[in-house]
Design brief:
Elements: H1 3-32, E1 46-52, H2 59-67, E2 76-83, H3 89-94, E3 102-106, H4 111-122, E4 128-133, E5 137-138, H5 142-147, E6 155-164, H6 173-190, E7 201-204, H7 217-227, E8 231-242, H8 248-268, H9 279-293, H10 295-312, H11 316-337, H12 342-367
Parallel strand pairs: 1-2, 1-4, 2-3, 6-8
Antiparallel strand pairs: 4-7, 5-8, 6-7
Helix pairs in contact: 1-6, 1-9, 1-10, 8-12, 10-11, 10-12, 11-12
């Protein structure tokens, strides 16, 4: 077997592992060897921090949603941290001061900087800090359910389940997200989650980490908690909902930004150091995170190897090449015709996400990633 054939087979195996093999392993593991987390109806002191930048159109609904949570008001502080909003968001928040809602103003520096500013402002009062976005709605019992795993002294980080409402346009994020949510549940039972979501999560106050604002909490917090000997878990019945981006164009730009932050974590965050992480969680991180981020690079390697090997040795390499061409063709048909037929739309989504990993890789290496961004259209 030639060196090129070995490279091609390795690239194919890694792609299939991250998208098919690893999810199967995680599912089986979660059924046969589940990690048990103690849960109880605890009521720690909670500071709920809502990050906002120019959210005047949704901030009142979000505050009303937070005020309606089924949680003792004397054990809950609701704080809106404004990332230099200039559209009237701050003034709207101040109307709720009489109901105990607090406003923290931060200089423009992105979501994490705004969250850090609020954490510094609240000091050591809360036992738990919960976080939410301005454009999502929590179920009334979401906070109660979110804090239940903190009854287990091993748990430092908990994320809830984000439910995406049906998109108005061509975006197929919902189908992908349902798979991702299921995988998150299986991972939680293997060891710990490898990623959270910014709409609904919480950490113990004494484990909060001030990370590079470009990293974000979704990916940095779970692995940092595990590295320090804690558990990062997932509660599927703590539910928040939000509207996804309207179409694939918006989703593509969001994915490029998201994967840019992922690559920064790979380059500078020591994300995959085996030290103090343990073999099971290291397997999760490599399989679900590093290989997923590198899927674009792996696809390029596989495509180039397939072209050369199909014409030089033929056989199965023609089938592998034709399979890749078929997926690309289905994606192009969906893009040209706005096809609603699920296999074509999913192929388009997969190709765009794969392309986003490549563009993000380039930007992280050569252009730099900023901690601030503008909100995607159609998500409010």
């Amino acid at each position: 077997m030639s060196l090129l054939a070995v490279i091609g087979w390795v690239a194919l195996a890694l792609i299939l592992w991250t998208h098919v093999g690893y999810p199967i392993l995680a599912f089986v593991w979660s059924k046969l060897l589940p990690r048990r987390i103690e849960q109880a109806d605890v009521e720690p002191f909670v500071a709920l921090i809502i990050a906002a930048h120019n959210e005047a159109d949704v901030i009142e609904a979000k505050i009303e949603n937070a005020l309606a949570l089924d949680y003792p008001s004397e054990r809950l502080r609701i704080i809106v941290t404004s990332d230099a909003s200039n559209d009237g968001t701050d003034e709207l928040v101040e109307r709720y001061a009489s109901q105990g809602v607090e406003l923290v103003r931060a200089e423009r520096g992105g979501k994490v900087n705004a969250q850090d500013t609020a954490v510094r402002a609240i000091g050591d009062w809360p036992d738990v800090i919960a976080f939410s976005d301005a454009n999502c709605a929590w179920e009334p019992d979401a906070l109660r359910r979110l804090v239940r795993p903190f009854a287990d002294d091993r748990v430092a980080y908990v994320c809830g389940r984000l439910s995406l409402r049906k998109a108005d346009g061509t975006n197929r994020e919902g189908a992908y997200w349902r798979f991702e949510v299921a995988l998150r549940g299986w991972e939680s039972k293997m060891h710990s989650v490898t990623g959270g979501n910014g709409s609904i999560y919480a950490v113990r106050r004494d484990t909060y980490a001030f990370v590079d604002p470009r990293f974000g909490h979704d990916l940095s917090f779970p692995y940092l908690m595990v590295k320090h000997g804690w558990i990062a878990t997932y509660v599927p019945d703590a539910v928040a909902s939000e509207k996804p981006t309207t179409n694939l164009g918006d989703e593509f730009r969001r994915k490029v930004r998201m994967f840019g932050h992922c690559w920064l974590l790979v380059f500078y965050g020591r994300m995959f150091s085996l030290l103090r992480m343990g073999p099971v969680y290291w397997l999760e991180m490599i399989s679900h995170r590093l290989l997923r981020y590198a899927s674009g690079l792996l696809h390029v390697v596989l495509l180039l190897a397939s072209i050369v090997l199909a014409f030089s040795t033929g056989g199965i390499w023609w089938l592998i090449l034709l399979a890749q061409i078929l997926v690309i063709a289905m994606a192009l048909v969906s893009a040209k015709t706005a096809a609603r037929f699920t296999p074509f739309a999913l192929a388009q989504y997969y190709v765009l996400v794969t392309l986003a990993t490549l563009i993000a890789f380039y930007e992280a290496l050569f252009k730099g990633i900023e901690p601030v961004w503008e909100r995607p259209e159609g998500t409010r």
